[in-house]
Amino acid sequence: MQNLLEELYKTDISFDKFHFRKVFLDGSSYQINGISQSGKTKLVKNYLLGLKKSSYMYIDCSDVRIDITELNKELSKFCNKNKIDTLVLDNYTQDIKIVNVPQLITCSEVNYDIDFLKNIRLYPLDYEEFLAYEHKYDSTALNHFFQLGGFASMQKINSDERHIYIQKTLKYTLDEMEFDILVFCAKMMAQKLSPFSIYERLKQSRKISKDKLYKSFDSLHSKNYIHLLQKNNHSKATKKVYLCDTSLRLALTTDRHFGRRFENMIYLELLKSNKNCFYDDGIDFYLPDNDEVILGMPFTDERTLFKKMESIEAFIITHQVKKVTAVTMNKEATVSHPFSEVEMIPFDIWALGD
């Protein structure tokens, strides 16, 4: 293990051009959590390149050469001997003992709730971050976002290989049950879905344990491969399911339902903006803190929107909604309504608005 640690310590860090994210690292200790391909490794490596080479050590804990028992015996002594100020444990697991260094950074899918580490939850690229990869900020950029999604790695994958690349990545990262559940969730994107309904469907084609399925479902949710949206004022009602990135829908199913992908994209922008939101009957997203309703209506017009307003008028009056925003593909307009301010806003303008 000593020889391996020496090798890792001396190895230079290198990677392709880094595109800055909305999160950044300073001299504090962190635990960075996020799904595979969310950018955890690049974020920490970019930070390390700004430090003196001899002051840090980067270890990818998934390296098959690492014996964790031996690592736990030797790592602390090695860090003290070489005066390591910053230690990065990428793909960290709880089997690895915490080492006392001035700055510790762990990266993993799971949040291990290590008290003294600041937590950063890293998601795939949002639309604003995606634009850093584009040469022109016009309609072609938005179309690319719809095609590629928020995984930065997709920028370098040939178009005919993207779906298989995502499938292979997910199969490597998830166990068989988690993968099968994720495929089913992809089919049910932006719809109400419960673990029981998944169990009822999957048990028709295989022998399956309900307890294991529920545990795997919770694991996917805790690691943020799927997101669940609660119904307004009905915490026990069936939740709507959204994917961590819309590219999973295209990679895991043959269904190209654009409206659901569009709704999922809106949800992810709200999620990354830390907006408190719920769904309701006929309401895609209700933001009580803003007294606002957001509707995903990619190809709507004024007449269709006005009819939609009529169908949700009772909700608007009951909850004193001050603003209704219909997010569209490219339509921009204001619709007259007696109770609320009603606007149609293209997705790219809306996503960059805040």
Measured as a percent range, the helix fraction is 25-40%
Major sheet attributes: 6 strands, mixed
Spatial order of strands in the largest sheet: 9-10-11-12-14-13
Instruction: Give the overall form.
Output: globular
Flag low-confidence runs. none
Count of distinct strands: 14
Q: What is the helix/strand order?
A: HEHEHEEEHHHHEHHEEHHEEEHHEEEH
Structural class: alpha/beta
The CATH topology of the largest domain is given as Rossmann fold
Number of domains: 3
For this structure, the quaternary state is: single chain
| C-alpha end-to-end distance | 50 Å
What average pLDDT do the residues reach?
Answer: 94
Describe the structure.
By secondary structure, this protein is α/β, with parallel strands linked by helices. It has three domains: 120 residues, Rossmann fold; 119 residues, Arc Repressor Mutant, subunit A; 71 residues, no CATH class. It is 38% helix and 18% strand. The strands form three sheets. It has a six-stranded mixed sheet. The chain has a five-stranded parallel sheet with strand order 2-3-4-1-5, with helices on one face. Helix 7 crosses helix 9 and helix 8 packs across helix 9. The longest helix has 15 residues. The radius of gyration is 23 Å and the shape is globular. The model has no long low-confidence stretch (mean pLDDT 94).
